[in-house]
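Hi Y.,

Following your request, here is the sequence exactly as I used it, all 220 residues.
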Amino acid sequence: MATLNTHRFSIAEALRFGWRTTLDNLGYFLGIGILYVVIIAGLNGVVFKMNAYSEGWAFLLAIVAFVAGIVMDVGLTVISLRFSDGRRAGVEDLFIHYPFAPAYFIATLIAALLVVVGLALLIVPGVFLMVLFQFYAYPIVDEGAGAVAALRRSAALTRGERWRLFLFGLLTVLINIGGALCLLVGLFLTVPVTLVSRAYVFKQLQLAGSRADQMNVSGV
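Below is the corresponding structure, written out as tokens. Let me know if you'd prefer a different format.
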């Protein structure tokens, strides 16, 4: 008798999708990756040099660098979501979604604080919270959720799949470690693979949740 597969996503399929999508759009992802690194490294380099002349200007530039990083992280979230839907993205998508930056920053801060506290409490609670909140960025840019709502949405999406999501997260970490070991150059390949794979998993969980809601409404 066949066993019914009740899982809402496939780890193997998510990683295959991320790999295939990255290879099919390798030029785009390399360009985005290089641009991201150049901007962050350039701004931080200016901050370092400016610190020798004016701590005030260095502090202001450090804020600019931080904000730029937040904006581009939001952009990467949007880009990965678009590719997970089979759509394309442009270079401008790295920068133009800044209206989501405040909610993203607040959610990141809350999640980071909770994870740090959890890690201080025998590590396991921190790891659990990492799994719980790993999708918070996507509801912000895809559903227009606020910071707290996005964290709650992430927690709800992971319900029933947390052990498998932990395994998926562990695999993505190992993949990026492998990329880092290749003189860091490998990260230009592995980071897009894991970003798109994670966005794909989010979309699968989101779709499964929508179907469940429709069935509940229809009384099926």
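DSSP finds nine helices and no strands in the chain.

Thanks again,
Q.
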